[in-house]
Amino acid sequence: MPPPTFTAMSGTGRFAPSTTGPAHPGTLLAALLCWLDARSRGDRVLLRLEDLDPQRCRPAFAEALIADLAWLGLDWDGVVRQSALAGQHAAALDRLAAKGALYPSAISRADLHAIGRRARDGTWAYDNRERDSTLPAGGWRACADAIRCRLPDGTVALADEAGDDLGQDVAAVAGDPVVRRRDGAIAYQLAVVVDDAAAGVDRVVRGRDIASSTATQAALQALLDLPRPTWRHHLLLMEERGDRKLAKLHGAVGADVLRRHYQPGDLCGVLAWCAGLLDRPSAITPRELITSFAWSRVRRADVVVRWDGSELRPQIG
């Protein structure tokens, strides 16, 4: 198949994994669906390596991720390292500060636990108790504490492309988000909206585990006068218990192990079967899936997968 041809009407998508560990089956499925969405529409698709966490991100993980995705057969119209985008993150903080939206937050994780209220994503919610705090004379750059953004009260009306209601009164349900951490790292919620806008991303395809953060991101986009993309959230691969996504933090098999047991086309076929794009697992390349790709064919329900030491065993009826 020839390389994609873009027009002035082409959109831009992105796959934005964190570089905190090896890729796992869920990473590869999310990459495949994001890539197929863009390629089937004639859109650009970027790989953005989210490497802002100084404690958990490693260059070796980033390089391995790039290699694993290439091995599977995915190509990108640009590769961006989020750590190289500090200038646009700082500019966004300046804009929020100019609106009087930033304030220091000394509250700890133990404090959040003591509040005892859960956000929709299962994390401990913040009750906005420090909203009357002000930044030091030197502004956010001189602040030793974490920095939060004061969001407008009221519900953010929002729907996923698939029709799921993502609306939320973010300030009340989750609380004002941290936008710069105590260690100086830019927080995910701010970085993601700034980087999407800067890259012209108008379409975000990602797992439904991140859906609950969408309203926070939409509120930040409104504060920064940034365009709102279309969001599409898809199924997850789950551990055998079925109550947690198949993820590196829960002992999922890494891509390095998968590559020792699968050829690229065979693994792509298993992932496509999990997604509902094939009736049975059979060797296929990502490019061979483009012409028949449609979200109406993608399975809505999550899929439980077991690794038996030599192959993935999805529990599909």
Structure description:
A three-stranded parallel beta sheet has the order 1-2-3. It has a three-stranded antiparallel beta sheet with strand order 4-5-6. The chain has a three-stranded mixed beta sheet with strand order 9-10-11. The longest helix is centred in the first third of the chain and has 17 residues, at 25-41. It has 317 residues and is of the alpha/beta class. It has two domains: 13-77 and 235-314, 3-Layer(aba) Sandwich (Rossmann fold); 86-194, Rossmann fold (3-Layer(aba) Sandwich). Strand 2 (44-49), helix 2 (59-72) and strand 3 (79-81) form a beta-alpha-beta unit. Helices cover 31% and strands 14% of the residues.
Topology:
Blueprint: E1 12-15, H1 25-41, E2 44-49, H2 59-72, E3 79-81, H3 86-98, E4 102-105, H4 109-115, E5 146-149, H5 170-173, E6 178-180, H6 188-198, E7 203-207, H7 214-223, E8 230-234, E9 237-238, H8 255-261, H9 264-275, H10 286-289, E10 303-307, E11 312-314
Brief digest:
31% of the residues lie in helices and 14% in strands. With 317 residues, it is of the alpha/beta class.
Largest sheet: 3 strands, parallel
User: In the CATH hierarchy, what is the class of the largest domain?
Assistant: Alpha Beta
CATH superfamily heading of the largest domain: HUPs
Q: Percent helix among the residues?
A: 25-40%
| pLDDT averaged residue by residue | 92
Strands of the biggest beta sheet: in what spatial order? 1-2-3
Which band does the percent of strand residues land in? Answer: 5-15%
Radius of gyration: 20 Å
**CATH architecture level-2 label of the largest domain:** 3-Layer(aba) Sandwich
Structural class: alpha/beta
User: What is the domain total for the residues?
Assistant: 2
Briefly note the CATH topology name of the largest domain. Answer: Rossmann fold
Task: Flag low-confidence runs.
Answer: none
Distance between the termini: 33 Å
Name the helix and strand elements from N-terminus to C-terminus, one letter apiece. Answer: EHEHEHEHEHEHEHEEHHHEE
Instruction: Give the tally of β-strands.
Output: 11
The total count of helices amounts to 10
Shape: elongated
